[in-house]
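Case study 2.
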Amino acid sequence: MRPFSALAFEPALVVWMLLGFGALLLSVRILDLPLWVAPLAAVMPFGISNLHHGQTGFFAILLASAVHVLCVRDRKVLAGLVAGLVILKPTLLIGVGLWWLMDWKRWYPSLLAAVPSAGLIVLPTLIFDGFEPWRLFARSSAARIEVHADVVANQPTLRELAKRALGGEIGMSMTTQLAILLAGALGLWLLGRRWPTRTDILSGGAIFVSILASPHLLVYDSGLILIPLAVLVSHRARASTIETMVAIYTVSSLAMIMSLPPFGPLNDWVSPGAVGMLMLVVLWVRELDRCREPIPSGPLVRASPSSV
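Prediction:
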């Protein structure tokens, strides 16, 4: 909210919220979803979490949606340039990064294009503010899990984290999150085997991995789920499946935010949001297995020739 620092807090917050909702509306538009999805998403758990203190979740959805659309349209360089801007939240597109690395022969233009745009963000902050994105990643990866004497208190750098791993000093919460991330990488590999040329499906799966990579995202940025839901819509999925997924997402997100008693013991191992998200992944893959081929629609989301 720095550009609005000359304003009082309340007016600045209102302006920021209006801009955020505009970003959400634009995300829904470029994903070719009905416009009524935007106000519905705004009152979902992640939306409520973003409606205070200048959170950036709505803008994160816009950037991730742009990367998804550009990937589907096979605009690799542009996708990489936009993805590089997300270095301020390293977990936001970690799944997309894993996907690109697994299929680097196809996506190396995106990987290379992400370097200069990420540099434009990181280098000035390194010089002036000491910005350390991977330290923030380590902190956010365990921020919602109630395990003491773990990385939450120490916030290790990537080098320190590697030393702890080699010395067997990683706590339970980080171990769990790393296991989930490895499972997500395996899931992406399996998606690549099942749908090797379906860019939209692979991108949607990568977004799921990004959400699972950090419990922090499950609270503030789980609106990224709009992207895999948009994939289902383009594949003419059953409305009942989409409604079930939205219900599971809502309950698990509320459980995570409010620490409801039925899920309390899970917080010592893995967040209830992660459990719910894994259920969503299973439903998503099962529905895609039975869907017909999508009929491209909308001005921006079009299947590229290489993805059909």
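The two ends are 42 Å apart (CA to CA).
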